[in-house]
Amino acid sequence: MAMAVTMQDGExxxxxxxxxxxxxxxxxxxxxxxxxxRPAAGMRVEIAAGTEMDLTAMQLLxxxxxxxxxxxxxxxxICEQPEAVRAAxxxxxxxxLLDGE
Length: 101
Hints:
Layout: E1 4-9, E2 14-19, E3 21-22, H1 27-36, E4 43-47, E5 52-53, H2 55-70, E6 75-79, H3 82-91
Parallel strand pairs: 2-4, 3-5, 4-6
Antiparallel strand pairs: 1-2
Helix pairs in contact: 1-2
């Protein structure tokens, strides 16, 4: 399933919802979506159940988290299947994406 990105402005943060497969083939689309979120307003990424991510997508999310933190903004990742996503991130050494670090 191709990646689907839904964006909306929340009360305190821009929200990006990922569904489907976020991989190298969709990296440019994911990067553009992340750039459209305004770090100053805070950022939240919601990862839908069944979403698959490769290392490219994980690295883009980590870069967005660093950019938000550098701007003094909040960056949250919400997972509908936290165990599966956490396991994949741990395998890649990127578990801090879900942590408050």
